[in-house]
Design brief:
By secondary structure, the chain is an alpha+beta fold. It has 4 helices and 12 strands. It has one domain: Cupredoxins -  blue copper proteins (Immunoglobulin-like). A hairpin with a 7-residue loop joins β11 and β12.
């Protein structure tokens, strides 16, 4: 009976969001490394291309579906109505290694040097939009374990307070060279974006 209920929850998560999962709910998701203290960042209320000195911004939404009641009970700040309970989050991540509603959209992009990524947190949890040389784990060991990324991306170990983006906040990252670019959330390491930067 429990397996059937879990299968239904997981199927709903996959259909709704098509992505990742987590582990035992009795383990805290306490970050290690830099404090998750957040500074206020600029809010972008409209999504779409906007000209900045003749260049177009590339907009990215950071999303999640945390349930404030059950996440806040675990000491994990969540500021949004309803959503995936903490136990469902852990069960899904344990099963899949990712949770679909926790994602960057789009997850791929084509950009040019001089353009700026404008990543806005439209979810209820804090996220980061961190450029990394290679995808890896983040600052929460339990989530790294469940997402099967035990090796922490070095860039995630060097975060500053203003790298954390609260719900409604925005983070800007200018593209300054051509090549393949990778961005991830250093809290939820399956949240990723790959971009190709032309000349």
């Amino acid at each position: 009976m429990v397996r059937v209920a879990l299968a239904i929850v997981l199927a709903a998560l996959i259909i709704a969001c098509d992505r990742n999962s987590v582990a035992p709910a009795d383990q805290l998701l306490a970050p290690v490394g830099p404090s998750a203290a957040i500074t206020t960042t600029e809010d972008v209320s409209t999504v779409g291309p906007h000209a900045t000195q003749g260049r177009l911004n590339v907009f990215v939404n950071m999303q999640d579906a945390c349930d404030p009641v059950t996440f806040n009970q675990r000491g994990i700040a969540c500021a949004r109505p309803g959503g995936v309970t903490f136990d469902q989050f852990i069960a899904g991540l344990t099963q899949l290694g990712f949770i679909g509603p926790w994602a960057f959209t789009p997850s791929t992009a084509t950009v040019e040097p001089g353009q700026t990524f404008v990543a806005t947190n439209r979810g209820g949890e804090t996220h980061s939009f961190t450029q990394v040389a290679d995808f890896g784990g983040g600052i929460v060991p339990l989530l790294n374990q469940l997402a099967h990324v035990p090796n922490v991306a070095p860039e995630c170990g060097a975060l500053q307070a203003d790298d954390f983006v609260p719900p409604g906040g925005t983070y800007r990252e200018e593209v300054n060279h051509a090549g393949n670019l990778k961005f991830q959330c250093c809290i939820h390491p399956w949240m990723r974006l790959e971009a190709v930067s032309g000349r």
